[in-house]
Design a protein that fits this description.
mainly beta; 2 domains; single chain; OB fold (Dihydrolipoamide Acetyltransferase, E2P)
Length: 258
């Protein structure tokens, strides 16, 4: 499993800002946290108080590439009805203050399994219900959501499907070469031609490597699966292959250790 080679979330350096005392936008409304929670009246004249609180602990990492430690965390919100809605938010360090993001809705009454920051991406693992299952049923379907900061906003990039895993490593494209070396490994894997994300990888590689030396390697994070190498063509010399379904990140840095 490539996922086991990914670095653990960064926790050594505490972020300069405190995400537990910052403002976020949930469902179009500003929510100001104090020590990780908030309680407000959502509608004028309503007697039901809206409660918002942090689930688990914030995780830290550089989310916007500026070298500062930022944070990501899960917020739960209860407006007094039957639902409890879960959001993922980010707090970016801006001159010692926290710039809270819009919340990205994860779902109603799901079970959060974990959150981490890997290579600047926010990874959220949760359990959900299947289509048509009643809300009273226990969520059992494992789901992994991938998000990142894009143009200053937290955005959902996609969700890992059944059988997919996070792929992080170095990719090299050239004549007779279409290889991927996973982080923590030395053996190159052939990127199979029916990969759903292959055209996007090729286009991104051409753009990012335009001023680089031939056969330069770029850092890639995507989602897919290990598969058998082809039985003909340039890929037959590879012992392993990967099928890349989603491309999340392709750039000249950082390397696998960051």
């Amino acid at each position: 499993m490539f996922a086991s080679t990914l670095p653990a979330p960064s926790t050594a350096d505490a972020p300069a800002c405190d995400p537990l005392d910052a403002s976020y936008i949930l469902g179009g409304r500003v929510v100001r946290l104090e020590r990780g929670s908030a309680e407000t009246l959502p509608v004028t004249g309503s007697t039901a108080r809206e409660r918002t609180w942090v689930v688990g602990e914030p995780v830290s990492g550089d989310l916007d590439g500026d070298g500062d430690e930022d944070s990501a965390m899960i917020l739960a919100q209860d407006s007094g009805g039957s639902g409890t809605f879960y959001y993922v938010v980010a707090a970016r360090e801006q001159r010692g203050a926290c710039l809270g993001s819009h919340g990205v809705l994860l779902g109603d009454r799901i079970r959060i399994e974990g959150i981490s920051v890997v290579h600047g991406l926010v990874i959220v693992r949760s359990l959900r219900r299947g289509a048509g299952e009643p809300m009273a049923s226990i969520p059992t379907i494992a789901t992994t959501a991938v998000l990142r900061i894009e143009q200053g906003k937290l955005a959902a990039l996609g969700t890992l499907e059944a059988g997919e895993q996070l792929l992080a490593g170095r990719v090299t494209i050239g004549h007779e070469v279409r290889s991927f070396v996973p982080c923590g490994q030395n053996r190159a894997h052939w990127i199979v031609g029916n990969s759903a994300a292959l055209d996007e990888i090729l286009a991104g590689y051409r753009e990012a490597a335009v001023n680089a030396k031939p056969y330069a390697s770029l850092f890639m994070v995507g989602a897919g699966r290990v598969t058998a190498p082809p039985v003909e063509g340039f890929g037959v010399d590879y012992a392993d292959a990967v099928e890349v379904d989603h491309l999340f990140l392709l750039q000249s840095g950082p390397d696998c250790l960051k």
